[in-house]
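User: I'm preparing a small set of examples for a lab meeting where we compare how different chains pack in three dimensions. I only have the primary sequence for this one, and I'd like the structure in token form so I can line it up with the others. Please keep the answer compact; I'll paste it straight into my notes.
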Amino acid sequence: MRGTLAVPGDSARSHRRVDLRLAVQVPDLQTFLDDPVHAALLGGTVEVEGLTSGPVTVDRGSLHLLASIHGGRQRTMDYIVPFQDNAGSSWLLQGSKLVYRRRGIGPWRATTRLRASLTSPADRYDATVPTGTLTISVLGVARLLLSLRPTGAAGTGAAVTTLLRFARFFTARVLLAFSPVAPTRRQDGPPLDPQGPTATSG
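Assistant: Understood. Below is the structure token output for the 202-residue chain.
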């Protein structure tokens, strides 16, 4: 993923180039599927203009992949990407992709644009407002999919089966998040407005 983010301490309009190359690890697929937040491990590299002189290693990152929002259809993809700059200071690149049906946002855009911020680990809970956007290309998506490592699978056949199960999980959750919500029906009457009844005063 590539884009620009603001760095704490810079001027309000200043943004720096960011290049994020991640690899996803799912040690045990069944555990991942059973986990409500679908936690995976993140490795790879991150490069931030002015903070790193080149790509630096992601230090035990995490991804919550298509976790449900309040138990409903809407989903998020939440990234935590720790790294150290050239001076040895620790940073977190953190952000989310909001995956659900809304005007002007389709499945591709929702799953390929990360709204994110850069912060120190001590300030991670205060840095809730995104300061920029990172976008992944078609080639980047292919590279990320190829990086998936089903480390709990034994043999090529088992690995392929695991990847196919993962693909079904991902596709089903995204399609459900974007499928229209059917109106609620009365038991013996017309469909109810999904927004609920409205009252008018006269």
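A couple of notes for your slides: The first strand starts at residue 2 and ends at 5. Confidence is low (pLDDT under 50) at residues 192-202.

User: Perfect, thanks.
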